[in-house]
Amino acid sequence: MELTLHHAHAWDLTPQQAIQVQRELAGFVRVEPLARPPQTIAGLDMSVRAEAVQAAIVVLALPSLVVIDQAIWRGPVTWPYIPGLLSFREAPAVLHALKQLHAMPDVLMADAQGVAHPRRMGLAAHIGVLLDMPVLGVAKSRLTGVYVEPDDVAGAQSPLQDGDETIGAVLRTRVGVKPLFVSVGNRMTLAEAVALVFATRTRYRMPEPTRLAHHLSRDQS
Predict the structure, then answer these.
(1) pLDDT digits (tens, 9 = 90+) for 158-190
(2) 3 in a domain, yes or no?
């Protein structure tokens, strides 16, 4: 499958140049209602071992959560581990994996941050702007912002704030587990991102798209 990239940029950058790219791309994030109810959603995740990265994508039908497509891409790591700039390490691998799908899903769900990032440009936002499509981030830990711990009840949530700005939601998907940090990547509202997490939740802490992608990204077969 061919990908059309919007606001494309070089990847061989210094950290200072990468920060400037993030600041520029953040201006293109669109927080707006979905154009139509999604019929497919893809979870994406990646693992890094030594000098190799493996990106995995699993596409599910909605609302059944039946797996209808998947892809893996393995390649060399081309960017160092620098907190706040991880999308420059991970996005190229994700784009390679997406090219192997039969069709582009309606929504992407990344095991990563969206705008819940110091420069509002986590991996989910980076991919969302480059592809100009709906993407949300579902992260296991907080990168930035403050919040009140949500009640220990499945479905409880609280806002993730950076000053006066709401940059995400903190969700409790199951009783007795740590919350997840959900944020918009591009072209959806935070309420829609939260609703998609709950719509794809099963009996696990993580929603099914990113849970399956997480396991596939560690498959060494």
Answers:
(1) 999 999 999 999 999 999 999 999 999 999 999
(2) no
User: Under a CB-based contact definition with an 8 Å cutoff, are residues 40 and 62 in contact?
Assistant: yes
Q: Which of 141, 139, 140 is nearest to 123 (CA)?
A: 139
Distance CA 45, CA 48 (A): 10
Tell me the one-letter amino acid at 175.
V
Q: What does DSSP say about strands 165-171 and 107-110: parallel, antiparallel, or unpaired?
A: unpaired
The mean pLDDT of the chain is 96
Contacts of 165 (CB under 8 A, 6+ apart): none
Domain CATH for 130: 3.30.2170.10
Backbone angles phi, psi at 44, to 5 degrees: -135, 140
- Of 154, 10, 209, residue with least CA distance to 92: 10
Query: Domain range holding 134?
Result: 15-217
For the cut 70, the answer to whether the pLDDT of residue 61 exceeds it is yes
In a domain, 1, yes or no: no
* H-only helix segments in the chain: 15-26, 87-98, 123-131, 190-199, 208-217
List the one residue out of 169, 165, 91, 76 whose CA is nearest residue 128.
91
Instruction: Decide if 211 is inside a domain.
Output: yes
- Binned at pLDDT 50, 70 and 90, residue 220 comes out as low
- The number of beta carbons lying within 10 Å of the beta carbon of residue 69 is 16
